[in-house]
Amino acid sequence: MPVITFTHHKGGTGKTTSCLNCGGFLNTKRKRVLIIDCDPQANATTGLGCDPQDAEKNMYDIFMSGTEGFESVQLKDIIVSTDSGIDLCPSSLDLAGSEPYLYEREDRLFVLKEAIKPILRRYSYILVDTPPSMGQFVINGIVAADHVIVTLDNGMFARTGVDALQTIFSDIAEITGTPVSADIAVITRGRMLQEEMTPGEEISDGFRRLLGMKKEEHRSREQFEEIVAFCEKSFPHVFTVPYDIHVHEAQKQGLPLSQYAPDSEAAHVYEKISAVIKNWNK
């Protein structure tokens, strides 16, 4: 049962959006999906309609489990059901407080991987959302993964971001002795995440749409095409997700696009990405 981690050390690349919406298309009556939120910002948690403060236990307790003075907690103890039908291991801002303790542990790279083992057979797919950083939660997500999905924006620093990720992969492979690479690159055209839009940006975006202007029209098409070409040489599968207001609306409702707007442009792309992921569970 594959563990799939969505990662990029830069913010605003669509990690959470991609994780939630792939999870939506993968989740069926016969295929159970678990999303593990390893980001202290807890965007995957709120994106599935859950309040980070409501959970009695969350990923903070998982990463603190085994530390002297803290109780032993397993993933099965923190899993919550969501209205989408996707199960969730929630996060909260408290998670950030566990990272300093991880540096004191010899097994710090493998905390998440070991935590997943007891529940692995309960799910058809386990998706891990990681924070925009190069810290222990990102490394844990990559080490635990059978497959890695990299998310990129179409900005000028996308290529340098890929180079930095390749360095991280090489460092992890050297330490663990297991090769690490990304199977899919998802390029988001425009700022898609609810949590990334300030009220002023939402108003500005609304005016652009009223005028019939799309955000990607303000980007260099040549630059975008260069990024796509670069990714096609670097990753087995490359997908481009268009800017789609339904993404923002779906996250407000705590639902994936597969349920909120299955015929939207972005939904069609995430359905195609999910079709590739399904081949990993045959």
TrEMBL record:
<dbReference type="InterPro" id="IPR050678">
    <property type="entry name" value="DNA_Partitioning_ATPase"/>
</dbReference>
<dbReference type="Pfam" id="PF13614">
    <property type="entry name" value="AAA_31"/>
</dbReference>
<feature type="domain" description="AAA">
    <location>
        <begin position="2"/>
        <end position="174"/>
    </location>
</feature>
<dbReference type="InterPro" id="IPR025669">
    <property type="entry name" value="AAA_dom"/>
</dbReference>
<protein>
    <submittedName>
        <fullName>AAA family ATPase</fullName>
    </submittedName>
</protein>
<dbReference type="InterPro" id="IPR027417">
    <property type="entry name" value="P-loop_NTPase"/>
</dbReference>
